[in-house]
Amino acid sequence: MGQDDNRWSQLGFAEEQAVFKGATQNVRALSEHWVAANMFCPACGAERLRTLPNNSPVGDFVCDTCAEEFELKAKKGALGKSIPDGSFRAMTARLAARNNPSLFAMSYDRDRTAVTDLIVVPRHFFTQDVIQARKPLSSTARRAGWQGCNILIGQVPLSGRIPLITQGIHVSKSDVLNRWRSTLFVKETSLKARGWLLAVMKVVEAIGKPEFTLAEVYAREAALAALYPGNSNVRPKIRQQLQVLRDQGWLAFNGRGTYRRV
Q1: pTM for the full predicted model
Q2: Which segments within 143-224 are labelled E, that is strand?
Q3: In this structure, are strands 69-76 and 102-109 parallel, antiparallel, or unpaired?
């Protein structure tokens, strides 16, 4: 990334406004141009990502080195807890696809022509739990019955929200790559088992301290039971996921029911 890569070009912004009448189209074009010009691949470190053709069914960018694909969503102001996306049906169908894209989520300050925050969510953190269906369009709408969705970024564990730019400040490339690699064990977990694993990761993060006890995780048993009402063995499931996280090096077991975040 160059020395000015945390800023959008004033000239580029004006040119996009001349091309597109709609503000949404302008933002999309400008944000995609910024990523193509400045973004490295957070999965393998390749210097550039290639822009996919318009209306590609899956993503917006691909890394020609590791074949990882990415979708980009940009919004004005803070990222918040959810990001609007496209078709709920298409999103649900692609969750299990091998080329389900990872997500770049960008926030920008239009007045300062600046990218303020940028995160990447690796594709293995996407489960049905983080996709929220929106109300279908009314019968009088041009696309009557079409149903969009929201990506519930706030439901993704912090480990899966890898920062690239935070309040205008760039995170080092080495840190981004290390954080991506530290999540790869999630990718190796089956989609069916992944929901529980991510839910327990989020509970551990919510405890908010580097060392914690099994009892503190059990204190959130009701919330986990509400997520998976069909499971009547919540505590054994919690212990199972903690063991997986320990075996993968995400946690360390200190003995006597205490754990430490690594």
Answers
A1: 0.85
A2: 148-151, 162-166, 169-170, 211-213
A3: parallel
